[in-house]
Amino acid sequence: MGFVVLCLVCYLAGVGGAAATRGRVEERKRRIHSAISEMRGPGFLYTRTPGRCTPQFWGSGREAWPNMVPQEASVSKVFGSRVLERYEPALTLLEATQRNDDVGGNAFSKLVKQSSAALLNAYTRPGFAYSAWEVKTMLLEALVSEEAAASQAKLLEEANQACT
After folding, report:
1. How far apart are CA 112 and CA 100, in angstroms?
2. Among 54, 129, 64, which residue's Cα sits nearest to residue 97?
3. Has residue 18 been placed in a domain?
4. Which one of 28, 67, 78, 137 is most buried, by most CB atoms within 10 A?
5. 148-153 long-range contacts, Cβ below 8 Å, gap at least 24?
6. 40 and 60 part of one domain
7. pTM for the whole thing?
């Protein structure tokens, strides 16, 4: 009789243990579902890790900037006073790499964004497609028209994307 009672106790303990485990699993599912429903936003968010030479990379601060062009340097001091025709005097290189007004067709915004990244790449990435003075010259030559700015920005963007 003692053996049967022992078996019955073990059986009931096992069933109770399974019920407790199921309860924990259900609680965990409820918490996960709650957390997921809190994270829902206006839509699907897709992010891509930027390459090591893109304006997004330089604007993120993940790598130290070269001493020749500190983040606080104004675009006009780095590229020359002719850029004041198109850009405000207080615009810094860091702000230029972080711009997002180039989306939608503003060629001059895209030009300064890509030129700033290309200049940083010219100073820090051996084998970059352009030297620092070439990048500066390309920007200055592209200030004459929106078509020239769009064309040079595209060339610099391709060089920045191809850089490793």
Report:
1. 11
2. 54
3. yes
4. 78
5. 149/107, 149/108, 149/110, 149/111, 150/107, 150/110, 150/111, 152/111, 152/115, 153/102, 153/107, 153/110, 153/111, 153/113, 153/114, 153/115
6. no
7. 0.68
CB of 110 closer than 8 Å to CB of 149? yes
Give the type of residue at 26: E
User: Which tokens hold the place of 102?
Assistant: 């180039």
Q: Do 159 and 115 contact (CB within 8 A), yes or no? A: no
Low-confidence ranges of the chain (pLDDT < 70): 1-23, 25, 28-50, 102-104
Helix ranges (DSSP H) in the chain: 2-39, 55-60, 75-79, 93-98, 107-124, 132-142, 146-162
Residues, the chain: 164
Q: Is residue 50 part of a domain?
A: no
In this structure, the answer to whether residues 22 and 62 fall within a common structural domain is no
